[in-house]
Amino acid sequence: MGAPAETTALLATPFGGPLWRRKAVNWAMTALIVAAFAVALIPLFSLLFEVVKRGVPGLSWEFFTTSPRGVIGGGGAAHAIVGTVVITAVTAAISVPIGIMAAIYLTEYGGRGRLRRALTFFVDVMTGIPSIVAGLFAFALFALFLGPGIRLGLMGSVALSVLMIPIVIRTSEEVLKIVPNNLREASYALGTSKWRTIVKVVLPTAFAGLLTGVMIAVARIVGETAPLLVTTGVVDSINSNPFEGRMQNLAVYAYSEYRTPGVMKQASYDRAWAAALTLIAIVMILNLAARFVYRRYRTEIR
Amino acid sequence: MELPNAIGTPLKAGSRRAWGDRVFSNLAVAAGVTILALLAGVALFLLIESLPAVSASSSELPGGKSLVDYIAPLAFGTVLAATIAVAIAVPLAIAVALFISHIAPRRIVFALGFLVDLLAAIPSIVYGLWGIFVLGPAAVPVMEWLEAKLGFIPFFEGPASATGRTMLVAGLVLTVMILPIVSAVAREVFSQTPRKLQEGALALGATRWEMIKMTVLPFGKSSIISGAMLGLGRALGETMAVTIILSVSGGVTFNLISQANPSTIAANIALNFPESSGLAVNTLIASGLVLFAITLVTNLGARAIVARQNIQ
Q: How far apart are CA B256 and CA B161, in angstroms?
């Protein structure tokens, strides 16, 4: 009925105006997009430049090998480095098995059941938990049983696990999903049981991807400050036992050197920047290594 | 997934194989249940630890104010800072996503994506230090200009801060922090715009911008909205950058460039928690619970939008 009129309208509307104007608009919008992209990258370059410029003066042999215990207004970050390593290792030890097993459940066992749907939904919810809330949760959990003054490395690890588990599940699930079904079926056809198929066929095929996911997840939590501020406390001496006493780490160290500088203010700020530089270096190395592992060792899946 | 049953059925119960299968599948289920329990635990323990603050009379709470009066200005500050961040980040993120998906030469797309992802990987404490030592001082002349020229708008009423520790600077740092998240979501969907739509538009004689306006942007509309809400959720809960940058006075104001700013829930916890004890701790945990609820609603909204898009 109205078809001819509609067709004319359709043909007329999309490209109104003379050609030179349309070309000018096209050019202007392209320039705008390129400019916006450039603007978005300015902070990145400024930040990297400043962190290196301000961080390098604070780096020294002393920075990596001594703690501020018994030194007035000085010392290094050895206690924070030890703490970062211990807290991150314990977090990974909690999160990786739970995360990968849950991903195996989702891809291999879940089917379309209710637990599967609930898990998918709540992992999404978990991804959105603010890091400070994760810290408060760990505090509330331990304070309820051990009293409100409690500060432990382990509490920090529990808080960070809340943040790390959903990342591990997400990445592992993606990787397990792309393991081709005919590999599983070939294994079943040889009479292999399901769990041996998963352990001997599915996991090795997905190994590089799983490792990549874990490294990226570690990179994401290694620089967390807020949850550790409320759970592991601030301390001057080296402590490598997550089950006893306060524990320092690099991010909180950077914060407290900034917040409560010593008598020599600039020296404290130098140390804060040095800690920031160390953190960024760790994060970058983890990210680059993850990419390398994935490209070098992933099983070719055709 | 029917095959394993075909092989599995003839096995006698109690054989080693069936036993291994049962243990392994129970482990997998246990991991899933653990995660659900963990999440329930987050809500439960925060609730338990904030109850004393709810039942206490207002004279016992920090500042002698009722719980609602204590949290409301903080919630206002939280939403204000996050709103600034989203308002600036979304247009920028759309441009970044379009640049990577449709304008940049194919060869460098991978490297560009890596650069943007790098922004997301930088720890928030580093953003905080950068904000207070670099961006803040650099923003002072800009804020003085805003006060002089645009002072009639309530946002720029001033007096402009001389240190740069303002809501505007905090919002700008949050912008940089959420930009990669918003643009990653948008980029993903932009690059999935059906080729036939794009080529159809070009075949009709559209310029590249007209093609983007007619096909890519309408196709990616809901992804932009959900990306913005994910970014909002992130900005609401961001702690360290705001803690370091913002100079707080506790009042409620829309003035973005002065020295007196409302704090945010997360920054307030980070500032006061280490030195608090007793009911003050319970009060802070109650405010954390409110933050949890706000981000939860935001994120669920984002998921709902994505889900509706997937059905269509």
A: 10
